Amino acid sequence: MRNKFYLFISLSISLVLVFLIFLNAQYPFKNLEVGRWSVGYSFANNVFPPPKLILDNILPYTFIDSITGSSNNYIADPFFIKEKDSFYLFVEQKGIENADIALFVSADGNKYDYKGIVLDEDFHISYPQVFKYKNEFYMLPETKQAENLLLYKARNFPYDWQIEDTLLKGVELKDPSLLLSDELNLIVAVDDHLKQFMFTAGSLNGKWKEVENYFPRLGNETRPGGRFFKVNNTWYLPIQDRTDGYGSGISIFKLIHNDTGLKLEMAESSYLSAQANIKWFNRGMHQLDIQKIDEKFYMVYDGDRNTDNTHVYQVKRSLQFFLYDVYNYFYKE
Q: Quick one: average pLDDT of 200-214?
């Protein structure tokens, strides 16, 4: 009897160790600590496979430090729009207090000038998704702390942004990515628990409602990391890959729209991740905006820098993401 008991204990310990090894391989317990974010940009001939990022085309967080005179800043969540002969790059600028929206302008997409803060609220605001709709300029940022999804309109583009509409009331959503097209209109976002939501409406200012029969995935690779973009008549959406911790990578998902409904399907895992040859992005990346400009694609992205090789242990996160994966696998069936 004693031998059977010891055998049972040994097998149990062995199974736990095997599970922990597997879990650590899926979602490492030890990750580089989050640092500070900078923004990059480049032209590319193609979107797939991922183009090589340009080392010199970086707007580093140290540039913002030099303007503010402090060292608690970063810039992240870049979105751009090209209007006439200029590139307008909007970013989240974070200082000691809430984040604001700042603007950079370029004549050629290669050299940018800082124009300062263009949108300042009493609450944290980020993800400045700027777009043109019916000859007017709009921005759909993250306004989670306002507990509403707010749409802004420029009265004097690229300045004077004012609230135009509340698309969704009483919601706390992160990184809402918008798709407006002849085919359909969508908003994809997540809540604090990384539960993914999808909403649809007849128009930008229409009544936005949750998509019926949409499977709301949980956990990793659910949070949008940029706007929808189209390649060869297919819509794609950047999604944050948090396998190696928050902001460690970006995967690309394909939008499937057919008679059975709507879903996002993996197109390319780890499309962008930590860049060993770019010190500003040595820990990871978590935002990407791609648009076709003439015959090329223009891309803006952000990356995070860890300067002292400090790590954090995230065993709870690893177990949580694994359980979410199990849920996603069985629920969708």
A: 94
**Phi–psi pair at 218, nearest 5 degrees:** -125, 155
Q: Name the residue among 284, 291, 221 with its Cα closest to residue 251.
A: 221
Digit-coded pLDDT (tens) for 163-189: 999 999 999 999 999 999 998 999 999
pLDDT-derived band at 332, boundaries 50, 70, 90: low
Neighbours of 197 (CB within 10 A): 18
Structural domain boundaries in the chain: 36-331
Cα(49)–Cα(44) distance, integer angstroms:
11
The region, left, alpha or beta by phi > 0 then psi within -120 to 50, assigned to residue 309 is: left
Residue 141: cis peptide before it, omega within 30 degrees of 0: no
Average pLDDT over residues 234-251: 97
Q: Which residue is listed with tokens 């300062």?
A: 116
> pTM for this structure?
0.95
Q: Which CATH superfamily is domain 36-331 in?
A: Glycosyl hydrolase domain; family 43 (2.115.10.20)
